[in-house]
């Protein structure tokens, strides 16, 4: 196999294929749907921070917290309070808007 062949082939399994298979399990699908708002918010925070070319440490300083708290938030291993999210939003120059649908 040539180097050009290696570059065009992809290894592994696609995420969408794994997700589709896992979503066939009703319990998995329910938990995925329950966690979706959290991960959507985390994605917004990460995108805003990176869009401002800001490090986790810079955001932590602006929000009055530690870098480890930002890291845990962004990894999804921390369930933040509303007050914490408001501090993070302010550190990003943003506001938090909550909507119940």
UniProtKB/TrEMBL annotation:
GO terms for molecular function: DNA binding. The keyword NAD does not apply. PANTHER family: TRACRIPTIONAL REGULATORY PROTEIN-RELATED-RELATED, TRANSCRIPTIONAL REGULATOR. Keywords: DNA-binding. It comes from the Bacteria. Residues 45-100 form the HTH cro/C1-type domain. The keyword S-adenosyl-L-methionine does not apply. This is DNA-binding XRE family transcriptional regulator. SUPFAM superfamilies: lambda repressor-like DNA-binding domains. InterPro entries: Cro/C1-type_HTH, Lambda_DNA-bd_dom_sf.
């Amino acid at each position: 196999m040539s180097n050009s062949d290696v570059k065009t082939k992809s290894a592994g399994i696609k995420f969408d294929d794994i997700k589709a298979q896992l979503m066939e399990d009703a319990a998995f699908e329910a938990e995925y749907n329950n966690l979706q708002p959290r991960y959507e918010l985390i994605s917004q925070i990460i995108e805003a921070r990176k869009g401002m070319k800001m490090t986790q440490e810079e955001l932590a300083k602006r929000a009055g917290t530690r870098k480890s708290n930002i890291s845990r938030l962004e990894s999804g291993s921390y369930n933040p309070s509303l007050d914490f999210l408001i501090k993070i939003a302010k550190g990003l120059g943003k506001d938090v808007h909550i909507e119940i649908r």
